[in-house]
């Protein structure tokens, strides 16, 4: 077996709305035009075969493009557990207005390029998911409320059961045993659940928002303020987790 490679995205942006897609899946979003520096692993979104990276950008709604508007992006690859070498940059992009003019009140594709990937990690369940359709909101909300209920009940096993597919796929993506991923989650929950004042914010189905990507096969769920839908507090510590779901043969399932 060859060296296991980790692919990471690094984005710096300011004064722009930005969305980065890998194989149609949203891997970074700046929805307000704020100053951001973000890094994240791309392995969970890498597929077997060609991998396509798209970057969309636009001015903040109702605003002209400011002089401080900037966007830089890197895709870095390197052996797992090692510092990236001199040839680590798989994709490098810097936006400028002259070469990539933007349009008022809309997002413009400023980059559409393949990512050179040595090998994938097998097929992901979301690749075969049914597309999001009108009327699916109620079933997704029920899944979010189920997750909130097991957290409210301090039910670690119940919560891990909802993440079984995600943990299995993240294990493949990151070359980390699924049992280790589950143990890490259990350790976080044990500390949270031990607090006498542990509580989970109630989920209001009417306040949930659904953002489909990958042709509707992936749906990122947030509240109406763009926050993660599962949020709790206990012992002075905040707990919150993002949620991306897909409609599989087994029903709506947490996949990331």
Describe the structure.
With 256 residues, the protein is of the alpha+beta class. The protein has 2 domains: 5-114, no CATH class; 126-254, Nuclear Transport Factor 2, Chain: A (Roll). It contains 4 helices and 15 strands. The protein has helices at residues 137-152, 156-162, 164-174, 178-193; strands at 5-14, 17-22, 25-30, 36-41, 52-58, 70-79, 89-94, 108-114, 199-200, 209-213, 218-222, 230-234, 237-241, 243-248, 251-254. The longest helix is centred in the middle third of the chain and has 16 residues, at 137-152. The radius of gyration is 19 Å and the shape is globular. The mean pLDDT is 95.
From the 3D structure, determine the CATH topology of the largest domain: Nuclear Transport Factor 2, Chain: A
Strand order of the largest sheet: 4-1-6-7
Which CATH C-level class of the largest domain is it?
Answer: Alpha Beta
Radius of gyration: 19 Å
Strand content: 35-45%
Question: What count of structural domains?
Answer: 2
The count of β-strands is: 15
Largest sheet geometry: 4 strands, antiparallel
Q: Give the proportion of residues in helices.
A: 10-25%
Low-confidence runs? none
Distance between the termini: 27 Å
Instruction: Note the run of SSEs as H and E.
Output: EEEEEEEEHHHHEEEEEEE
């Amino acid at each position: 077996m060859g060296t296991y490679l980790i692919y990471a995205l690094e984005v710096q942006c300011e004064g722009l709305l930005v969305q980065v897609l890998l194989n149609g899946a949203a891997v970074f979003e700046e929805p307000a035009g704020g100053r951001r520096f973000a890094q994240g692993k791309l392995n969970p979104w890498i597929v077997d075969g060609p991998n396509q990276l798209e970057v969309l950008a636009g001015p903040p709604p109702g605003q002209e493009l400011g002089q401080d508007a900037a966007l830089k992006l890197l895709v870095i690859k390197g052996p797992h557990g090692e510092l990236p070498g001199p040839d680590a940059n798989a994709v490098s992009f810097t936006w400028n207005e002259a070469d990539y003019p933007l349009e008022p009140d809309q997002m413009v594709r400023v980059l559409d390029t393949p990512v050179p990937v040595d090998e994938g990690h097998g097929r992901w369940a979301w690749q075969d998911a049914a597309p999001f359709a009108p009327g699916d909101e109620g079933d997704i909300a029920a899944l979010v409320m189920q997750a909130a209920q097991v957290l409210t009940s301090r039910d670690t096993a119940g919560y891990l059961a909802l993440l079984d597919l995600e943990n299995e796929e993240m294990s493949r993506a990151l070359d980390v045993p699924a049992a280790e991923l589950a143990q890490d989650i259990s350790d976080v929950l044990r500390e949270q659940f031990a607090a006498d004042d542990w509580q989970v914010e109630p989920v209001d189905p009417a306040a949930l928002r659904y953002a489909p990507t990958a042709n509707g096969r992936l749906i990122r769920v947030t509240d109406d303020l763009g926050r993660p839908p599962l949020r709790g507090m206990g012992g002075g510590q905040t707990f919150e987790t993002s949620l991306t779901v897909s409609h599989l043969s087994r029903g709506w399932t947490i996949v990331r």
